[in-house]
């Protein structure tokens, strides 16, 4: 099933108990509100689908995995309510992954920026290629990685998260991300990465659904307040994005 949005899509396929959710946007797989909404709904549906035993989350193309928030939509935000609504989209995707009773495997084939790092951190098991460098660029445009912060901190610790958040212009390579625990595996080629994803997903399909559901609850222990916390964080970003600093910084980024 393909849910088309303006210039992009979210595609959902189920084969032999494996539900693959793929998103695409021509601007380096950036995330406008519609794609965020379709992603969270698709993950929620997969979690409630008895046929689904495991979920694979991926993006299309061969370059960036995800460039984070859509700059076009950021500059279109006119007030704090619109800002809250937009950044809540990231909260809903992360919480959908958290609450999904199935394991979500992330296929991270390329660079991740901002919200893309948040998605890579939120999945239960991220398998990446050596091209999957990461950067949290939010501070450079006058906002901050507030919504995705809890997911990233949970996975790589406060020290790793603070390094990414403070030095907003610096790329960290995929090996740095693997050593910090963001990626469970790192592969020298896309073929090797996909073989590993296939092996793991096939293994999980034949595992006990009840045992996996209970395991997932244990792994996410301590995040029960995220329904509220991530929306509070979205409100912070939603106000900051209105600043003149942010408007000018985004325009500079778009001209690069």
Molecular structure report:
The chain has 256 residues and is of the alpha/beta class. The chain has helices spanning 33-48, 71-76, 80-99, 115-122, 149-166, 174-180, 190-205, 209-219, 226-240, 244-255, and strands at residues 2-5, 8-15, 18-24, 54-59, 104-108, 112-113, 125-129, 134-135, 185-187. The protein has one domain: 2-enoyl-CoA Hydratase, Chain A, domain 1. Helix content is 50%, strand content 16%. The protein has a seven-stranded mixed β-sheet with strand order 1-2-3-4-5-7-9, with helices on both faces. Strands 6-8 form a two-stranded parallel sheet. α3 (80-99) packs parallel to α4. The mean pLDDT is 96.
Structure keywords:
10 helices; two-stranded parallel ribbon; 256 residues; 2-enoyl-CoA Hydratase, Chain A, domain 1; 50% helix; alpha/beta; globular; 9 strands
């Amino acid at each position: 099933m393909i849910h088309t949005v303006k210039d992009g899509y979210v595609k959902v396929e189920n084969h032999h108990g494996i539900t693959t959710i793929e998103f695409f946007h021509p601007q380096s797989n950036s995330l406008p509100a519609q794609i965020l909404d379709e992603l969270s709904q698709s993950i929620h549906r997969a979690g409630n689908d008895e046929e689904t035993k495991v979920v694979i989350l991926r993006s299309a193309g061969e370059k960036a995995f995800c460039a984070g928030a859509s700059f076009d939509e950021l500059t279109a935000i006119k007030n704090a309510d619109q800002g809250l609504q937009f950044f809540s989209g990231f909260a809903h995707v992360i919480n959908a992954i958290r609450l999904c009773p199935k394991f979500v495997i992330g296929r991270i084939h390329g660079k991740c920026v901002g919200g893309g790092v948040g998605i890579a951190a939120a999945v239960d098991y991220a398998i990446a290629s050596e091209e999957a460098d990461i950067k949290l660029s939010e501070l450079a445009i006058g906002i901050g990685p507030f919504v995705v912060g809890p997911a990233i901190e949970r996975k790589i610790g406060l020290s790793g998260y603070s390094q990414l958040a403070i030095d907003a212009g610096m790329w960290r390579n995929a090996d740095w991300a693997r050593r910090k625990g963001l990626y469970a595996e790192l592969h020298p080629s896309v073929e090797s990465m996909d073989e590993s994803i296939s092996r793991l997903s096939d293994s999980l399909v034949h595992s006990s659904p009840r045992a996996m559901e209970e395991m997932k609850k244990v792994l996410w222990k301590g995040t029960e307040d995220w329904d509220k916390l991530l929306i509070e964080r979205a409100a912070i970003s939603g106000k900051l994005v209105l600043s003149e600093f942010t408007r000018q910084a985004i325009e500079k980024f778009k001209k690069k």
